[in-house]
Write a structure and sequence with these properties.
The complex is a heterodimer of chains A (174) and B (395).
Chain A (H helix, E strand, L loop, with lengths): L1 H35 L2 H18 L8 H18 L24 H11 L3 H12 L4 H8 L3 H19 L8
Helix pairs in contact in A: 1-2, 1-3, 2-3, 3-6, 5-6, 5-7, 6-7
Chain B lengths: L2 H15 L9 H9 L11 H18 L5 H5 L13 E8 L3 E10 L3 E10 L7 E9 L2 E2 L16 E9 L9 E13 L3 E3 L13 H9 L3 E3 L5 E4 L7 E4 L10 E13 L1 H5 L2 E2 L6 E2 L3 E10 L3 E10 L9 H4 L4 E6 L22 E7 L9 E7 L7 E8 L3
Parallel strand pairs in B: 8-9
Antiparallel strand pairs in B: 1-2, 2-3, 3-6, 4-5, 4-7, 7-12, 9-10, 10-11, 13-15, 14-15, 15-16, 16-18, 17-19, 19-20
The chains are: A mainly alpha (174), B alpha+beta (395).
């Protein structure tokens, strides 16, 4: 009886993971790439994130699923930035090595993406969560583990930098 | 630009530009397999990248003796040679039986102090809360940049990193540094309950009622981030989150201590430093620039530039300087970049268009032309310098 219950719970957990992977893998991959500037590392980060999600699923009490997963992803990316060998990797933001895209992109898309990827880490993660992933200010604060005031401050400074990077480069800032 | 417009612009651009990144169709199955003890797919690096990394690692080992040390913390592999002779072994270790903190080596050039550290927790299931209680050199308090630190977080397994901190002015002329690092390690003395889940109504993202209930049940309630929750009758929800604070005696922790001490001789590195002599000022159309620091040390070349508007009312005094997404780079006297490395400092100072603090690591005087400059080089592909602030090197 005990093992039947455990088996049933495990099955549910696997199904939940599958749904989460379906729902968030693409977004997490793009988030992680913009964070880490490296496709292989981004793929590793996504894999590691879902591994942590799978382990944590039984303890999850509900709420904003996306914010919870983004928090795990951000922590995973930060941990990867901390590793010693990451220092040997070229950290510059570049998009030339990406695989061919299935949808056409414009020069403006390239400029905006590079501008976001070139932000300092603390601003970058806030921008990725708030503007790119569409989390609310409160969700971003939760995912980053900082106050809402902290989020607002980071976004304000990030917006300043983005404006300087994008204004006059084919991006209408008005 | 409205928030919605900016959000739309970023989402459109990134979803188009990053659409080539491919999802793994069987990722969920791989995760479940790995969780059940089967092998998970490891990182697939292209062969060339693998070979390059192997080469880098082999070379790094030659420099770094296979250990995490201050060189590997501070520099890229090709930047280490100049500083290597000035690295001083520390080999300090302190442990309380569960948490161990080690420092392998340190480097100080009279401007900045750098050392590696490795912290580990032999019982990851028992997270501890380390707090740096003393970080001094010659009795003077030192500060860290507040990132990548091991204190004021819940430490599970641990990690390796390092500290890179500017010396206070009163220490910049000393020959010896006696560095002391004392870390209080706080172990919860009651059962721990880690909050997870979210409640959109609550800005901290967890259910305050649940937190309060667990406190009442005698748990130390972690907020799921870097702090913990206490009962606070004055607060609307009856709780407050403690984050970034030194645990008090009334908090349910047992304290153990890690203490590390090492002495550095700064004289050799200081003697090897070469002060540069910039012009007194560089007057431009709308602002005036002055170098506040220009020196080459074993760590690299420090160039600090202060900009002052010629007309204090002119809010666009620096627009031309930063046009074309220009950023400060180390160049020759004509504005041609000498190195395209990321500076060690610069970003950490935040973005203030008037104060530029740059440290280009691993740059030695022997590799420089007769004239160098901090130049604002456009990042729009043109490579044009908006402004050049030259320094003639006369040794």
């Amino acid at each position: 009886m005990e093992s039947a219950t455990a088996k049933g719970a495990a099955s549910t957990r696997e199904e939940r993971l599958e749904k989460l992977v379906d729902a968030y893998q693409r977004a997490l991959l793009r988030f992680s790439y913009a964070f880490l500037h490296d496709q292989s590392l981004a793929e590793d980060a996504v894999q590691e994130t879902f591994m942590k999600v799978y382990r944590a699923l039984p303890a999850w009490k509900g709420g904003s699923e996306k914010a919870w997963i983004m928090k795990i992803a951000a922590n995973t990316c930060r941990d990867m930035l901390r590793t010693g060998w990451f220092r040997y990797v070229d950290r510059k933001a570049e998009l030339d090595k990406l695989p061919e895209t299935p949808v056409p992109w414009t020069e403006k898309d390239d400029t905006v993406t590079l501008a976001v990827m070139s932000l300092p880490v603390r601003m970058r993660e806030a921008v990725l969560m708030y503007y790119f992933e569409g989390l609310s200010e409160a969700e971003t604060a939760q995912a980053l583990g900082i106050s809402r005031k902290g989020v607002a401050s980071r976004l304000r400074r990030a917006k300043d930098q983005l404006r300087q990077a994008l204004e006059g480069k084919g991006c209408d800032w008005s | 630009m409205t928030e919605e417009k900016l959000r739309s612009m970023i989402q459109t651009a990134m979803n188009h530009r990053l659409s080539g990144l491919r999802e793994k169709p069987d990722l969920a199955r791989q995760i479940v397999s790995a969780a059940k003890g089967e092998t998970i797919t490891k990182r697939k690096l292209p062969l060339a990248a693998v070979l390059a990394l192997i080469l880098l690692c082999v070379t790094a080992i030659a420099y770094a003796a296979a250990n995490w040390n201050v060189l590997s913390f501070l520099f890229a592999q090709d930047q280490q040679e100049q500083a290597a002779p000035f690295v001083q072994p520390v080999h300090a270790e302190s442990t309380d039986g569960q948490v161990t903190l080690t420092i392998d080596s340190a480097l100080c050039d009279g401007e900045y102090l750098a050392f590696d550290w490795t912290i580990s927790n032999s019982q990851p299931e028992k997270a501890v809360y380390p707090y740096v209680e003393q970080f001094t050199a010659n009795g003077v308090r030192l500060w860290t940049d507040g990132t990548d630190e091991f204190d004021q977080v819940w430490l599970t397994e641990g990690w390796e990193d390092g500290t890179f901190t500017e010396l206070p002015e009163e220490l910049k002329n000393t020959e010896h540094l006696d560095v002391t690092l004392i870390v209080g390690v706080y172990q919860p003395t009651v059962p721990v309950y880690v909050l997870s889940g979210t409640d959109e109504r609550y800005p901290l993202g967890f259910d305050p009622k649940l937190a309060l209930q667990k406190i009442e049940e005698g748990y130390l309630v972690r907020d799921g981030f870097d702090g913990w929750v206490i009962r606070d009758d004055k607060a609307e929800d009856g709780i407050s989150v403690i984050s970034g604070f030194h645990p008090q005696e009334s908090d349910p922790f047992a304290r153990t201590e890690l203490a590390l001490h090492f002495t550095l001789d700064v004289s050799a590195a200081r003697a090897a430093s070469v002060p540069l002599t910039p012009r007194e000022e560089y007057r431009m159309d709308t602002f005036t620039a002055r170098y506040q620091r220009a020196v080459i040390t074993p760590i690299g070349i420090y160039l600090d530039l202060l900009l002052t508007p010629n007309d204090s009312e002119n809010e666009s005094a620096y627009d031309a300087l930063y046009a074309g997404d220009a950023r400060p780079m180390l160049t020759d006297g004509q504005g041609k970049p000498l190195k395209d490395d990321w500076p060690l400092t610069g970003e950490s100072h935040g973005f203030d268009p008037r104060e530029i603090h740059m440290l280009f690591p691993g740059v030695g005087v022997e590799n420089l032309p007769d004239t160098i400059a901090l130049s604002f080089v456009r990042q729009d592909g043109s490579g044009t310098a908006n402004a050049v602030f030259p320094i003639e090197i006369s040794l």
